[in-house]
Amino acid sequence: MRYGRWVPSLVFFGLAYLYLWRVVDVRLIYYAAGMVSDFPEFFRGEAFFRPFLSYPGGLAEYLGAFLAQWFYWPWTGALVVTLQAWLLAACARFLLDAAGAAGLRWVRFAFPIGLLIVCSHYAYHFAAVTALSVVLLAACLYIAIATRLRERSRLLAFGVLSVAVYSVAGAAYLLFAVLCAAWELWRGRWRPGAVYLACAVAAPYVLGVLIFGVSAEMAFAVGLPSWTRTGFVPPRDIPMVVSSALVVVLPLSLCVAGLWRLAARRRHPAETKGTKRRGPAALLNAARLWYGCAPALRWTLASLMLLAATAAAVMLSYDSVRKATFQVHYYACRRMWPELLGVARRASLSFATINAVNRALYHSGRLGSEMFAWPQRPEALLVSGQDQDMTFWTKFDTQMDLGLVNMAQKNYTECLEIYGPHPLILERLALANLVKGNVGAARIYLGALSKTLFHARWARESLAHLEADPALAKEDRVVQWRSICMKEDSPTIFAPAHLQLQTLLKENGGNRMAFEYLMSTYMLTRQLEKLVGLLDRFDALGYKQFPRHYEEAILVYAYTTRQPVFLYGREIDPQTKQRIERFSQTFNRYGKDKQAALRELAGGYGDSYFFFNLYGLSGVKR
After folding, report:
1. Which of 12, 24, 65, 558 is the most exposed place for a label (fewest CB within 10 A)?
2. Mind listing the pLDDT tens digit for each residue in 470-501?
3. Phi, psi angles (nearest 5°) of residue 272
4. How many other C-beta atoms can be found within 10 angstroms of the C-beta atom of residue 165?
């Protein structure tokens, strides 16, 4: 069956590509904002490229950083992973065949399956995978040329390739030396095999420590999945464990094949062609011969087993909650509020998710009427950054939208120091400086962005607008932020959220977002007397009626204090009054036992402020 060689691989890698593109959506890794460790930045130009030449593995890291940028789009990111997986699998097959272990060809699929598992956890070790690709290609090249050379020439070829591979791929060179040694040992050439194994230890020290001048830790670890910006980190999560396993899968396979061959020779030293097997051995041999004579069956079974193993691996590793969490961040970055709210219920219940949901509700005009249909925490409404948690930096976009530009800039700068010059951070720092009128600083960030692959156009256009209009009086987004931001520093920017919001309203009474966030803060902290004190602002802000949650909070205040509330010409919706009456009746029916009434009240009122005020819970209505 002539097509049996390439059809399974074509189908397998085609399905892998579709899975990465349509199911995983690898662009979420690009936007993951600190949740993906060591996501590399990339800039065009010699100034960015030159430092990568100063240490081993730098070129693989540079190429990995370039490939990482293509995760900006889901289809190109999926293509990068699929092509790398195919390359690794093709090299692995060549190496297994060259070593006489063709029976282990199926091991080559460990590489694409491993990369699928890593991506299913929304991680990717760009430099390590690139270094691994370089190493396997170099090993294939060595074997291809060594078969025609004598021992001295092979040693010379290995030496030249060793210098090149270690310089490009760093400590991943150890795999290159081990594979070349294994090939020599398989062919019964013990002397070069031993020399190559010795080089696996000696070369990183000589080239890395003595010539490149790096530390011993870096010399023996850079280029491996466990190497990060902060140094060597032992494998601590599934993606890192799987990526590390890909480095050793081929040497282990060749070792197993070699031991199997030795064991077979010792088990049947005198067996000849005429020897007849009996019993189970004869049945096993007959089944093997029949299987070998049925290529269609062999092709079908092999394909089904491969697809089943891959499906099981991705199903067990696919993290739908992590995907939804990353989608929340992506949609927040793109200001796609309906899409954000559509996936938020499947995301992890973190401060960043709650913050993004409230921001989406505000920009959708639904914060005052639907916020308690979602889980709420007072600390998540306005995240200050004082807790030093810089992951998911879009939570600091809320500060920009409110007018806390100085605080947002401070937090973006800290993100820059921790995660490096990611284009999304540089873009935010450029905008913050444009809003504040720091044109010189903005030009620096825009200049850096102009050297990226996919943010350069916006940066060049912004620089052109600065030349034509230094005040950017026609840039709607900048003008809108300037209209609400604090005109001068205030000590309250490091104060509790309600004091920050009060300061914003004091400077600009028309800051509607600051008003709604202050009303929400008072509801979340049950400071209803202060909430009632803000009812006089509704006319100036253009509200025609009270949003539902404000009505509920007003009624709770009136019922608990037994004091009338002046509504400034507005009325409470009769349906809201009926709801609080029914809520009270249900609660009283259980003898005002909160625990006993919890289930029924949650089922009917779990999205109301009535329920939150009583239990401190929200978003629990069935």
Report:
1. 558
2. 877 677 888 889 888 887 666 655 678 899 99
3. -125, 175
4. 31
- How much is the pLDDT for 272? 44
Residues 6+ away with beta carbon under 8 Å from 483: 508
Looking at the DSSP assignment, which residues form a beta bridge with residue 231? 228
Q: For 342, left (φ over 0), alpha (ψ -120 to 50), or beta? A: alpha
Task: Return d(Cα 293, Cα 245) in angstroms, integer.
Answer: 35
Please tell me whether residue 366 adopts helix, strand or coil conformation. Answer: coil
CA–CA distance, 378 with 380 (Å, rounded to integer): 6
Q: Quick check: 215 and 177 in contact, CB under 8 A? A: no
Share of the chain above pLDDT 70, in %: 91
User: Between 437 and 303, where is the model more confident?
Assistant: 437
Cβ-contact 168, 60 below 8 angstroms: yes
In whole angstroms, what is the distance from residue 510 CA to residue 506 CA? Answer: 9
What is the model's pLDDT at position 1?
A: 45
* C-alpha span between 451 and 57 (Å, rounded): 23
Whole-structure pTM value: 0.90
Q: Closest by alpha carbon to 314, among 518, 115, 70?
A: 115
With cut-offs at 50, 70 and 90, classify the pLDDT of residue 302. confident
DSSP 105-164: GGGGGHHHHHHHHHHHTT---HHHHHHHHHHHHHHHHHHHHHTTS-HHHHHHHHHHHHHH
Side chain identity at residue 576, one-letter code: T
pLDDT at 367: 98
First to last CA, the chain: 57
Q: Give the DSSP letter string of 13-25.
A: HHHHHHIIIIII-
Distance from C-alpha of 512 to C-alpha of 509, rounded to nearest angstrom: 8
Q: What is the pLDDT of residues 418-445, one digit of tens each?
A: 888 999 999 999 999 999 999 999 999 9
pLDDT tier, 227 (very low <50, low <70, confident <90, very high otherwise) = confident
pLDDT in tens, 118-169: 999 999 999 999 999 999 999 999 999 998 888 899 999 999 999 999 999 9
> Residue 592 and residue 241: Cα distance in Å, rounded?
53
DSSP character at residue 71: G
Structure tokens that stand for 437 in this block: 């009128």
Helices (H), 204-336: 216-219, 238-267, 280-292, 295-317, 320-333
User: At a CB cut-off of 8 Å and minimum separation 6, what does 12 contact?
Assistant: 109, 112, 306, 307, 310
Contacts within 8 Å (CB) and 24+ apart, 6-15: 7/299, 7/303, 8/299, 8/302, 8/303, 8/306, 9/86, 9/89, 11/303, 12/109, 12/112, 12/306, 12/307, 12/310, 13/82, 13/85, 13/86, 13/112, 15/307, 15/310
Dihedrals phi, psi of 227, to nearest 5 degrees = -90, 125
Residue with the two structure tokens 């602002």: 537
Amino acid in position 260 = W
Residue count of the chain, please give it.
Answer: 622
**Distance (Å, rounded) from C-alpha 555 to C-alpha 535?**
13
- HSE at residue 32, side-chain half, CA atoms within 13 A, is 24
Whole-angstrom Cα distance, residue 373 to residue 622?
A: 10
Residue 606: φ, ψ to 5°: -70, -5
CB 235 within 8 A of CB 226: yes
Question: What's the whole-number mean pLDDT along residues 453-482?
Answer: 88
Residue that has been written with the tokens 């992973």 in this structure: 81
Collect all residues with Cβ–Cβ distance below 8 Å to 477 and sequence separation of at least 6.
431
DSSP 550-611: HHHHHHHHHHHH------TT----HHHHHHHHHHHHHHHHTTT-HHHHHHHHHHHHTTSHHH
